[in-house]
Amino acid sequence: MTADQIIFLLCAALIIVSALMVVTTRKLIHAALWLVAALFGVAILYVILQAGFLAVVQVVVYIGAIAILFIFAVMLTRREMLDKGAQTRSNWWLPALLGLLILAGLIFLIIGQPAFGRTAAAMPEGVDTLRNLGTALVSPDAFVLPFEVASILLLAALVGAVYVASGNKE
Amino acid sequence: MTTLIWLLPLPPLLAFFVILLFTNKRKALSHGIAVGAAGLSWLGSMIIFIRALGVEEFGKHVFGSSINWLPTGSTWLKVGVQIDPLSAAVVFFVAWTVLAIFVYSIGYHNFGQPKGDHDVAGLPPHGTTITEHGHKHTVPSIEPMYSRFFAFISLFAFGMYTLVVSDNLLTLFVGWEIMGLCSYLLIGFWFGKPSARDAAVKAFMTTRIGDVFMLLGIAFVYSFTGSLSFSEIFKPEMLQALASTPAFFGLSAAGIIGLLLFIGTVGKSAQWPLHVWLPDAMEGPTPVSAMIHAATMVSAGVYMVIRMFPLISAGWTEGMPLNTTMSVIAFIGAFTALFAATIAVAQNDIKRVLAYSTISQLGFMIAALGIGAYVAAAFHLVTHAFFKALLFLGSGSVIHGMEHWVLHTDDHVDPQDMFNMGGLRKKMPITFWTFLIGGFALSGFPVLTAGFWSKDEIFAEAFGNGHLVVFVVLAMAAFLTAFYTMRQITLTFFGEPRTKAAEHASETPWTMTVPLIVLAIFAVGYGWVGIPEHFPGLGGLIPNWFHEFVGGTLAELPKAVEFSWVPLITSLCVALGGLFFGWLVYHKVKSPKQDFLQIPVLKNKWYFDEIYNFVFVKPASWIAEKFTSLYMDQTVIDGLLHSVARFSLFLGHVFRNYFDKPIINEFLGDGTGNLVKASGSGLRKIQAGRIQYYMVVSMVVLVLFAVMYYFLIGGM
Amino acid sequence: MSIPLSWYLILAAALFSIGLFGVLSRKNAIAILLGVELMLNAVNINLVAFWRYLDPVNMAGQVFAVIVFAVAAAEVAVGLALIISVYRRRKTVVADEIDLMKW
Fold first, then answer.
1. Is the same domain home to A4 and A78?
2. Which of C29, C69, C16 is nearest to A19 (CA)?
């Protein structure tokens, strides 16, 4: 067991445990906070995978924006659903079963593929992933179009969210 | 000439159609057409008769023609007309009597009188009240169905002419049946009276029985000889074959055929045992009685059997004992003559006496034929036609005279009952004298009347050929004939009027009395054409024209019988004796109580009607009403149908309630609807509106598909 | 790097399943969105792992992950805005109670 593996396993444990707490905890605010922890774990994973930019983006966007949004939403809707009583639906066993089945199926498929057993090759010399990512995002022969479309999507989402959430005029 | 013969039956037929279709409402025109038609046929008959007289040996050179009518394989059935001596003599008297009766009918049905007050078609006219000289009295009214009467008797005349001129059994039978129909129509002329309706049916049914056998005989003739024409049947070879071929019951073919045809005559000419219809036929108007019972219909029966004499007597010659058929004929004729005469002496209705008298006289003719006296039978046929028609028309005149009083006063006196009459000779002289002549002719009053000569000839033949039983029976019948005739004349015309009706009787108009006079002339004179040659005194003065003429019809002229005093004396005795006794007994009798001959068994016609009713009519109606109608038709057949219907209903019920409704309607029909509804209302709950529900469902499906994909299509 | 690819993939699968469970079984609408976020993160892990292990030179993997980030952010924004709007009207954030579109 190399050091990477141990780190990975610890990180994986963090993620899994946090995720489980997200979906099972009674208090909603706790769930949001556990989400932060899970996202954090994912960021660490990105670092291990040598995708440093993505790790930072993860922290900044996901934790810094999205999770905060969640906390805001929880607080704004707090009065209604008190954190008492069951937080899961009465037929939770069916989704659990489904989840397990899907998990089992996926694991089965993954293990069945010998190609997935390999380890990572070393990163080639002189590859600057950050620079390459930047270039790819704005280069016309690369992914400028999806990039622009994504920005339009964000614009639309912005406008939509503002409009929907304003709710002044009926 | 032969064209004229073909045309003889035509005028009355045309008169029938014209009256029926066009002139029904116009009485004068109708009787004019009818009498005109009868006159035309009379004229044609006279021409033919006179021409026939002029032909030498007419029997061998008859007038006739025939046409091919019905193709039967390679041959033809021929029909045609023929006038030979027999039919010439018959057509002579038919023409005269028919014309006389037609003219008489005009007066009888009160032409010229006003319409009745409350006369209905179907009942005899009741008379109408007119106001004359300030006071009302009833006069006879015209018959409501006047034109119809003339149409019917025209049809009747057509039937008789057809029968007489035909040269074959087929058209003879056609005329025969037409007359049967007309007798039904005319006896039931006053159809409002139930007794008339019953009498008409009885006449038709009884003659029908005879006709069936006659038709069998005709069929037998055809099947044996292949033809129905007289000339073919009476060929000597054919007769020889018929006589020698054995047929049923030990008789030869000729015998059986003769017997069958004779049964037709028994029905039509009212011989015992089929005599029951004739007295009841008096329900019809008197001209009808004259027509049917004197001039035409019953004469047709005798004419037919006289015509078929060669067949009946095939194999027999004079001097031989009679063959079976002839014996039967002679027996029935003689028996009927005596039988009917015994009934006639006890009848009080003037027409009934004449009816039984007709039956009796027909018996004479048939007995004569049965013993082989061809000419005598024909002679009596002709003379009887004249004097019987005379007597009937005379009785009609008497009844008319009596009815004046009946109409006048509504006094319900039977104008036909002789015991209500009396002294009419002063009131109705013409009727009296003509009736007297007719009555004497019927009785056989010597020399002066035709009846004497014809009856005497029958006696002579019977005695001379050794048929003594027949002779004695006929003599007794002749005695009774004279007796009841004189009884009738005495009660009606002599003495004092016994009722007011008789007191007020008056003579009838000329349309009725002139025919009486004409017929009386014939009743007297016709006998002189048949005086036998060897008659003492008178014989030989005038040749026996009738014997030569009519006898020529047969292949060989029959020999005239030898003269013998016995039959002559017998006939004189019975005739004069009967007349004398009749006057003696009855000129004192004033009421039926004094009449010793009102014996119940005679009055009730030897109870034959009751016997027939019991033996035939009641079982027949039982079979019809109870057995066939009730048991078989209603119970069995209808029962079968009803049970089929009930079964169908039951099946229908079963199908409806156990199959259609539950299975098809509820299960299939409503069931599918309900199924869809249920599944719809079940399935719609999928649209829960809850997102997580949708997502669970889609995840389940995804997993399922993934599993299916992996296992069925193969791994990744 | 001695971590086999399959470990990353299994981790992603597990995270995905947990997220799925959360989506399908939580009553609160916001909790449902939390589960969606987990699932998106699992997808991202998958993408980046594949990028690193198969072809780190080609940036398509990371670009894809970046786009996913953008989409996730947009989606969360709009979704929460919707939930707040619904909360204002219906005074409820329980997903099962928002069932106007039912039969």
1. yes
2. C16
Please determine, for residue B716, whether its predicted confidence score (pLDDT) is greater than 70: no
Name the residue of chain A whose CA is nearest to C87's CA: A77
Predicted local distance difference test score (pLDDT) of residue A131: 86
**C-beta separation of B30 from B15 below 8 A:** no
Residues 659-698, chain B, touching A (beta carbon < 8 A): 692, 696
Question: Same domain for A71 and A136?
Answer: no
pLDDT of residue B411: 64
Is the Cβ of A58 closer than 8 Å to some Cβ of chain C?
yes
Q: Residue A107 falls within a domain, yes or no?
A: no
B144's CB contacts (< 8 A; 6+ apart) are B115, B116, B119, B120, B121, B122, B125
State whether B691 and C95 contact (CB < 8 Å).
yes
Confidence of residue A80 (pLDDT cuts 50, 70, 90): low
Mean pLDDT on B685-697: 81
Q: A11, A34, A40, A42: best mutation site toward chain C, by most C Cβ within 10 Å?
A: A42
Q: What does each C-alpha distance from A60 to A57, B142, C37, C73 come to in angstroms?
A: 5, 142, 15, 11
- What is the third-level CATH fold of C5-92? Helix Hairpins (1.10.287)
CA distance B95 to B160: 10
Asked if residue B293 has pLDDT above 80, the reply is: no
> Contact at 8 Å (CB) between B520 and B439?
no
Examine residue A94 and state whether it is found in any structural domain, yes or no: no
Which of A82, A105, A124 is a domain's end point?
A82
Question: Lowest-confidence range among B326-330, B352-356, B626-630, C94-98?
Answer: B626-630
Output the DSSP codes for B503-534.
Answer: HT--PPPHHHHHHHHHHHHHHHHGGGGG--TT
Please check whether residue B379 is in contact with residue B299, taking contact to mean a CB–CB distance below 8 angstroms: no
> Which amino acid, B623?
I
Burial of B643 (0-12, 13-18, 19+ CB in 10 A): exposed
Q: Tens of pLDDT along A5-35?
A: 899 999 999 999 999 999 998 888 899 999 9
Tell me the domain boundaries of chain C. 5-92
**Dihedrals phi, psi of B119, to nearest 5 degrees:** -80, 135
Tell me whether residue A57 is in a domain. Answer: yes
Whole-angstrom distance, CA of residue B649 vs CA of residue B628: 28
Range(s) of the domain holding residue A23: 1-82
B543: phi then psi, degrees, rounded to nearest 5? -60, 150
C103 CA: distance to closest CA in chain A (Å): 21
Mean local confidence (pLDDT), B651-662: 86
> What subunits touch chain C, counting only 3 or more CB pairs under 8 A?
A, B
